[in-house]
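Q: I'm building a small set of examples for a reading group on sequence design. Run inverse folding on the following structure and report the sequence directly after it, with nothing in between.
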């Protein structure tokens, strides 16, 4: 875990990386996207990321091809 903290510190000092506060409206968007008949932590996390991007008017960039079918503005690398 100490490596994770070191990595976070490096990322926080990288001028190419921005940290954003949760956008207005994320609660409603997250609730809409997370009301699913599953208990999977991955689905929960995906719903949060998609809600954050949607509420913030952002493009979600990911390697996860499955997210392409779940979000309007998703770029799969």
């Amino acid at each position: 875990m100490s490596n994770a903290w070191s990595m976070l510190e490096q990322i926080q000092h990288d001028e190419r990386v921005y940290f954003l506060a949760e956008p207005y409206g994320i609660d409603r968007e997250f609730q809409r996207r997370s009301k699913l008949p599953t208990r999977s932590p991955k689905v929960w996390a995906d719903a949060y990321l998609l809600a954050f991007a949607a509420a913030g008017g952002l493009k979600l960039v990911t390697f996860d091809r499955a997210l392409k079918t779940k979000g309007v503005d998703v770029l799969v690398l």
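Residues 24-77 form one domain.
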